[in-house]
Design a protein that fits this description.
heterodimer; A: 396 residues; alpha/beta; Aspartate Aminotransferase, domain 1; 7-stranded mixed sheet; 3-stranded antiparallel sheet; 12 strands; 43% helix; globular; B: 169 residues; alpha+beta; 33% helix
Chain lengths: 396, 169
């Protein structure tokens, strides 16, 4: 049987058996609505509050500061739109980075249509935001800064603490999209100094379709979904109890095993990044070389296109992602890679391999065995590679 | 559901006629690496027929499959027959292409037609004489598709898709 190697944990992680077990009763006999006052509501209500405590524990927040949502994207929408709208009497200007997730960038675009102004701060070639650029972007009417904790496409970790120091000085709210970070590396909201932080369950072995926003106590937010008083009136709708319970359990497990997970993932990542250049020439590692997410490797292979690599790797049982134009539904090259100053031509060869707890050194061996022939096969077809080899022969 | 038909996968995994012809009678290039797909076709002509066709492609799985299919459809055919190969015929032979990829990856026929134009212009200039300029590229018709419902947009700059009314960012 063909070896199967899943290296797309940045897209989603598998559900841990312990998480599934914790969820099962709520997909079965414990079906009550947590808002109900009769006995059927008691257990689901208690379960949600336990999950709230588990998620609060993961980020070092208080339990009443956790708002459960339907996804990381919803958390980002709620934070960006909800915080900006709640403060619009103070001003209508917000600041985001050029490499935010679309759930932040498109929320900002929507705010623009509602009369807000949006400033985008750039990133350097490693995808790092300069906190001084954030300072320069602040205006008298700035009400919100939203800059991600780490970028899921290139793995770069942003200087969130330094940015928070600046937003505090200027008394501006700071939201960070920590979807790629929460459950992977330690987070402490008090130490970070942020006001709001988004996370999602399917990034750390919890279920899909559930996320959370940690929101500093006392911070006003405009709900996006009006209705009942679920989540303190900040997110109406009957709770997705099994998913929330799963998120809570996943958060608890992530907090408990974080250091061993990090050690494992870092070992896999560092070995792949160390051995890759010896196996393949003309490869550009994307993202920060050192300050990146533990299980995250991303690079661009010159002269060939990412989707073709992805499909050939898939045919050999390896699942990866790419930021090439052809892999996106809108057929646009990754805005992250372009913002980092990569040419469209190089960005087309983007590959992203993200490890998880289930991966082993044998998986790295397999990738190092399978990837080089895939690349040389596509290069042999590539007119760009033919031109390059002819030109370099000409020089000699 | 896999995004590509079995036929596309077959031609992508086992592309026919990959490579370069030494001293070709015609060369045609279409696309550019910026938009993600670029194809070069090389032809050898004998008695008004394509005796040999080879290609090099930079691009996604669909682009590689298209190139391979075009080369197979064209080999041995007369120049007139080859000029009648359209992107739609190529897509049909491949049992379909993803709608949003139909135009960007489906450049094989155009690239091959350019190679024939290149051959014909060399012929006109007479044997022994170098072809000074490449033939004019075909007029490119831009097709833009809604990223949400895949239907073709009437106007490239339209902020809305007229089919599903989604906003195009």
């Amino acid at each position: 049987m063909m070896r199967k190697v899943y290296l797309d944990h940045a897209a989603t992680t598998p559900l841990l058996p312990e998480v599934r077990e914790a969820m099962m009763p709520f997909l079965g006999e414990v079906f009550g609505n947590p808002s109900c006052l009769h006995e059927w509501g008691d257990l689901p209500r208690a379960a949600i509050e336990e999950a709230r405590e588990q998620v609060a524990g993961l980020v070092g927040g208080r339990l009443e500061e956790i708002i459960f949502t339907g996804s990381g994207s919803e958390s980002n929408n709620l934070a960006v739109k909800g915080l900006a709208l709640a403060q619009q009497s103070k001003g209508k200007h917000i600041v985001v980075s050029a490499i935010e997730h679309f759930s932040v960038l498109h929320s900002a675009q929507t705010l623009e249509k509602w009369g807000f102004e949006v400033s985008q701060v750039p990133v350097d070639r490693y995808g790092v935001v300069d906190p001084e650029d954030v300072r320069k972007a602040l205006r008298k009417d700035t009400v919100l800064v939203s800059i991600m904790h780490a970028n899921s496409e290139v793995g770069t970790i942003e200087p969130v603490r330094e940015i928070a120091r600046i937003t505090r000085e200027h008394n501006v709210l700071f939201h960070t999209d920590a979807v790629a970070v929460a459950g992977t590396i330690p987070i402490n909201v008090a130490e970070l100094g942020v006001d709001a932080l988004s996370l999602a369950g399917n990034q750390f072995y919890g279920p899909k379709g559930v996320g959370a926003l940690w929101l500093r106590k006392g911070t006003r937010i405009m709900p996006l979904i009006d209705g009942g008083i679920q989540e303190g009136g900040r997110r109406a709708g009957t709770e997705n109890v099994p998913a929330i319970v799963g998120l809570g359990k996943a958060a608890e497990l992530a907090a408990a095993s974080m250091s061993s997970r990090i050690e494992h993932l870092t070992g896999l990542r560092d070995r792949l990044l160390a051995e890759l250049p010896a196996k393949i020439d003309h490869v550009v590692v994307t993202g920060h070389p050192g300050n990146r997410l533990p299980g995250h490797t991303s690079f661009c292979v010159e002269f060939i296109e990412g989707e073709a690599m992805l499909m050939l790797l898939n045919s050999q049982g390896i699942a990866v992602s790419s930021g090439s134009a052809c892999t996106s539904r809108a057929l646009k090259a990754s805005h992250v890679l372009i913002a980092m100053g990569l040419s469209h031509e190089i960005a087309q060869g983007s590959l992203l391999l993200s490890f998880g707890s289930g991966n082993s050194m044998e998986d790295v061996d397999y990738v190092l065995e399978v990837l080089p022939p895939v690349i040389s096969r596509l290069r042999q077809m590539s007119p760009l590679y033919a031109k390059f080899t002819k030109a370099s022969k000409g020089v000699k | 559901m896999p995004i590509y038909s079995q036929k596309v996968m077959d031609h992508f995994m086992n592309p026919r006629n990959v490579g370069e012809i030494e001293n070709p009678d015609g060369v045609g290039e279409e696309g550019n690496p910026v938009c993600g797909d670029m194809m070069t076709f090389y032809i050898k002509v004998k008695d008004n027929r394509l005796e040999d066709v080879k290609f090099q492609t930079f691009g996604c799985g669909a682009a590689i499959a298209v190139s391979s299919m075009v080369s197979e459809m064209a080999k041995g055919k007369t120049l007139e027959e080859v000029m009648k190969i359209t992107p739609q015929l190529v897509a049909d032979e491949l049992e379909g292409l993803p709608k949003n990829k139909f135009h960007c990856s489906n450049l094989g026929a155009q690239a091959l037609h350019k190679a024939i134009d290149n051959y014909l212009s060399k012929q006109q200039k007479g044997a022994g004489e170098e072809a000074a300029t490449a033939p004019k590229p075909h007029e490119e018709i831009k097709h833009v598709h809604c990223p949400f419902c895949d239907s073709e947009l009437m106007d490239e700059d339209s902020p809305f898709c007229q089919a599903c009314h989604a906003e195009i960012r």
